[in-house]
Write a structure and sequence with these properties.
Strand order of the largest sheet: 1-2-3
Bound molecules: zinc ion
Radius of gyration: 14 Å
Order of helices and strands: HEEEHHHH
Largest sheet: 3 strands, antiparallel
Low-confidence stretches: none
Amino acid sequence: MELKQLYREIVNEHNLHPVHKKTIENPDLILRGVNPSCGDDITLSLKLDGDIIVDGGYEGSGCAISQASVDMMVDQIVGKKKDEAIKLAGTFMGMIKGEVTDEESIEALDEAAALQDVAHMPARVKCAVLGWKTMQQMLEGGAEVE
Ligand code: ZN
């Protein structure tokens, strides 16, 4: 299978059969992320145990790229430390902006590397980074549940 087609399949699969599109019990952090230029609107919830992200989920709607991207993102960060997740978000956003291109960094993103081609579609950049940006904001700035 051609690589680009494989990537398209990965994006389709996460869009059609999302794994983390659900509410989670007793989340510690909740933050909404909106991309008005496309209409993508997600609410991300994370559960923490100390510094470790132990569960995550999201609700909302939007285009295939935004939804697949947030699903892959949650997949990637559950089980990781907060600072590792923040670092991954930086790598992902760098890749989407075309600033991070070395294979080793991009491999760390696992399936999310499938979105690398978005770097050539400026109109879709905000779609692809929405979930990651929201995650980074909530882990850095805090969005504790009252
Ligand atoms: Zn979008």
